[in-house]
Every structure is written in C-alpha cells, then in structure tokens.
Design brief:
- The chain is mainly α.
- It has 22 helices and four strands.
- Strands 1-2 form a two-stranded antiparallel ribbon. It has a two-stranded antiparallel ribbon with strand order 3-4.
- A hairpin with a 2-residue loop joins strand 1 and strand 2.
- Helix 1 crosses helix 3 and helix 7 runs parallel beside helix 9.
- The N and C termini lie far apart (about 50 Å).
- The relative contact order is 0.11.
Length: about 550
Amino acid sequence: MLFIFFSLVFIIPVLMGWGNLLDKIFPSKIKGISGKTISGILFLGLIFTALSFFIALNIYVEIPAVLIGLFYFLKDKLYLDFYKIPKGNAVVLCIFGAIVLYCGSSYPFILDHFGYYVPSIKWLTEVGLVKGISNLDLILGQMSMWHILQAGFSNFCDPFLKLNTILLIIYLFYIIENKSWIHLFFIPVLLFFTQSPSPDLPVIVLSLIILNEIFIGNKAISFLFALSVFAFSIKPTIIWLPFFIILYSIFCVKLDVKKLIFGFCIFLLFIFKNIWTFGYPVFPVAVLDLGFSWKPNPELLHSSSQLAIVKTYDEQFSYQEIMKFSWFEYIKNWFLIPGIKSFIHIAFVLILVGFIIFSFIKKNKIISILCISVLLKSILVLLFSAQYRFFLEVFFVVFLVMGYQIFSKKIIVSFSLIMSILFCGIFTFPKLIQQSIPSFQLGKFIVEKDWMQLYKPSHYQYKNFEKFKIGNLKFNVTKQYPFNFDTPIPAISENYVFDYQKAKIFPQMIDKNDIKKGFIWKKLNHAEEKEVEKTVHAIKSHYPQTEK
C-alpha cells in the first residue's frame, strides 16, 4: 500500500502537469484535479505511443516525462487544486482511497495479467512497439495504449504496475469534485480491476466520465471525442462511445467537423499501431488485407476465431458442435451456460430491454442516441463473440443513466462503503467467494492477503524457462507454465509452439541482428521441422507423464 501511495504522489502531479499543457490546446472543461489528470492520461498516452515506434519506453523516457510534468505542476501552481476539496468530502476521499489502495496491493489474479499485460509491458520497456510481433505471440499484436502508458511509468514511478489503482483514485477525485455521487456505486465492483493493468478499468471509467460530462452539459466536443477514441484505442469493444459522441455532436449540438480532427488523428494512430504490430487495422479481425508481409498466418487466425466462438459458450461445446447449432440452440445454450455466466447473460439481455423501454418513456434525445449506440455495439458483440467481458461496461452505463439523480448522497456513500468493505473481505479471505460462488472462475485465483502488502504490493516470481533456437530465432519458453510474465524476451508460450508445429510454420526475425526490425512467419523445411519436434518433446518432458 505504501509503495502504491508513493507512486500516486508522483504520477498524479505528473499527469496534472501534462494535462494542463493539453488543456491550453484542447480544453476539457472538466473540473479540478481529475480534469487535468484525465487530460494528462490522454496526452502522455499519445506521446508514449508515438515514441514507442522508435525507442523503448525505458527510464530514459520516463525521467524526462516525469520532470516535465512536475515542472508544469509547480510552475502553474496546480497543487492549489488540492486545497479546494471541502473537508467533509476529503474524508470520503481518504476512506475510499484507503480501500482502493488496500485492494490494489493484492496479488494479481486475472490470467491475462500473466499472458498478455505483463509480457506486453516487458516488450514496450525493453524494445518498444515491434513490427509483426503477433507472429511471435498472437495476443501481443494488440498492444493496448493502456499498456503503453503503463510501460512509460513502470521503470521507477510504478514498478508494480498499479496504474489501475491510481486511475480508480483519480475517478474518486472526479466523483467528489463534481459531486456525482451515483458513481460511488461502481467503486466496489471496480476494485476487482485494481491489481492488474487491465484495459477494462480505464474503458469503464472513461466511458462513465464522458457520459457524465455530456449529461451535465459539457460542450467540449473536441476533447470528449478525442477521449472517447482514446478509450476505443485501449479496447475496441467500447466502439459505441465514439459513435455516441459523433451522433451527439450531429443531433444535439452544432456539428463542427474541425472539432473531430483531434479524435480522428488518434484513430489513425491506433490503426497504424495495429498494422505495425498485427498487420491488419483492427486486432484481432483479419479484414482489410493490405498485403503486409508481417501479417499473421491465416491458419492461426482461423484457429483464434474458432477459439473465440468456443469461449462464447465457456468451452462447454466444441467448435464443430457449435457450428451445427440452430438459431434457437445458439440462443438457448448461451443463456444456459452453467454457473454465474448464465446469470450475467440473462441480466445483460434484460437490462438492454429495460434500457430500450426506458429510452422510449423518457423521450430524451441524448438517452435515445445512447441507447442506439449501445444497442449497435451489443449486436456486434453477440454476432462475433458474446463473451461477458466484451459487454461488461454496458451494465455500468445503463445503471448510471437509469439511476441518475435518484439516490441521495447519504444512501450512496453508506451503501458503497458497506459493499467496498465486503469486497475487501473477499481479498482478505478469498475462500468466502470460492465457496459461495464456485462457478466464478476468477475467484479461484484470488490468494489470501499477505500483511506485507501494507508495505508493498505482492507480485509473483517464477523465472523458470528453457532456451531454444529455430532458424534464426533464439527464444525462451517457460517451464511447466503456459504464460511468460517474467520470462526474458523473446518468449513464446508453449501452446503457440504446439500451434506452430501443427501449422508447419515458425516465427523468424526479419533481421537476425536486430529484434526491433520485427518478425514474420515462414514455412518450415524438413530440418526445421525436426528442430521443432525436438522443442515440443523438450517442453512436454517438463510435465510428469501419466502412466497408462
């Protein structure tokens, strides 16, 4: 907790300094500390992304970024904003802030932390954005802008990768500065995203802030559209958000195309970043083939799309079985997945229906536009891969709109505090959720609190790997573990090695002397097939063999 607090003390002033610079060009019109830090997140996120094409986001990038941010924080006397928070609200901030720090100091438990978040950040801090890295490990082709921002702060400001914890405290500042108390309802659930740099938290928080700004009459379309596109660049499943801002600017305010230019520039940066790392404009969809030599192997992309469909049904059916479903079976089996996911799916459909009815009753132009935007996104998700994590933010958005100005501050603060304390209990005694909701898979990976976490956050160490060489590529594979969270780069997950063997291909360096030049895939010759076979045998030998 103490280490995260020190990170907080560094990073928030740095973001405020950078945010104040951006506000002079594109005013956010968002109040106080939260407004400047959100602008800073946008500005530094874009700067780090642009730099990562050319250099690694190492300490030589972080130090100047920190010094410049702190310089403008002090020069423009931005610290005075902290004195503007009323004492009563400061108490609420401190209580909820302590809860966020407590939960954020727990062990990471989201599996993507080990297979996607940390490996992405390692590549960014040691090399930068690498052309065709999806040929080495397909998931790394995504390289979210949130992980780029995290990488920029991960050398000394935030070595434990707790940017999500800091963002949730910034969100608390926003709630208190704007007296938008209903947002406190979301804090208990969002505590589950504080241990890892999950892109789900920033897209949820940014979408809720943008919506709130629209409802309170913020007309800074240039900034709000840019921020919505930035959220989209973090996780494209939030596509409804920039679409909503465009519709809002057309039907609710006088449309000025010039105000959308900043956002469209961010979109172009996002597209270019995806083409550089993945070979196609939008990860993981292989559309608009522009013929780049570093695009992934079609067979592996097809396997990935099949896996997405299988995961829609929580791996209860094979891909072949799903393809034989009638339309009725598609819907029925999705609703009847065993465990908590069935409840989430049913709740999702009910809340969408309820939102449609609510928008008809209200006859409010903004709510109607929002309903259309969310509905279009939901249809796309249901058609391609209806996993609950792809429509999670819809629950928050609909609750915000339907519950707006209904509950009093006292009720909201009391309820949120009680629920937050209960959720702290889950992180302290995880067996409570493991026994009460056994179908909640993530709950099985939550580890009991180590009281050293009051001093510094907990993190795992494994450092058990083996070195291999195929063609011109020397790489590492973690022993007896499917992820590469602390294995030196270049690292390949064992499952991808098996996939490459099956497809009779293997990643190769474009320039054998420079990893920054990137990766392509190539068909294996006979000698290389033998080398891959030996590699697979060595990987499998790490596991105890079951006797027949």
